Amino acid sequence: MPSFYHFIIGLSLLLILVLRSRNKSAYRKQINIITFTLVVVLIMELAGLYTARKGINNTLIYNLGWIYLESYLLIAYFYSLERNLIWRKRVVKISVLLLIWGVINSLFFEPLFGAIQFFSLLPFGLFLMILSIRLLYQLLNLEIYSQRSLLVIPHFWIACTILFFYLEALVLFGTYNFFPSVIMENVIIVSMLNKMMAGLMYFIFGFAFIFPDLPNLLNPKKNSHTFS
C-alpha cells in the first residue's frame, strides 16, 4: 500500500490540476512543466515501491526517472524563467554536456542497473542548485516580478525547496558513496530525512502555485485575478 509520502505527491498533483482547470495563470508554461514532473515522480515512486516489495532491482527506475528525466524537467523549468539570452544559451550547452557525461558514466563507470549514479547526480544537483540560487538572487534583488510580494511568488518557494533538497541529496548519496557504513548504520533515520525533504519539495511544487490564488478558488463568485 502506498505510504504518506506517495499521498503527498498525489495531493500536490491534484492541487496543481485543480489550478489548471479553474484558473488561467500567467505561469502556464511553468505549471505545465511542474505538472508533468509530478506525474513522472508519482509513476516513478509507485513503480519503485512495487518493485522493492517484489524484491526486484529498481535502480534503473531511479537512475533514469530521478537523475535524468526529473533533472531535465527541472532544468526546463528554470530555463522557462530565464530572461537573459547568454544564460539561456549556457543552460542549453551545460544540459547537452550533462547528457554526454551521463552516457559516458553509464557505459564505463556506473551502470544504470548498479547503484544510484552519484557521479551523474553530482553535476545535475550542483547545476540545479546554481540555477536555484540565480533565480533567488534575481527575485531578492527585484530583477524579476518586482511588483509582487516575494511570499506570493511560487518560484521563490520552488527554488528554495529545490536548493535544500539537492543539497541534502548530494550530502546523503555522497556520504553513501564514500562512507557507506555511516549511512547503513543510520539507514532508517537517513531514509526518513530524505523522504521528508523530497515530500516537502513535491508538495511545494503544487501548493506554491495555488496558494496565492486560494481565496479566489474557494470563492469563485468573487472577482478573480491572475498571476502577473
TrEMBL record:
The chain crosses the membrane at residues 6-21, 33-53, 59-79, 91-109, 115-137, 149-167, 187-211. It comes from the Bacteria. Keywords: Membrane, Transmembrane, Transmembrane helix. The keyword Transmembrane helix applies. This is Uncharacterized protein. It comes from Mongoliibacter ruber.
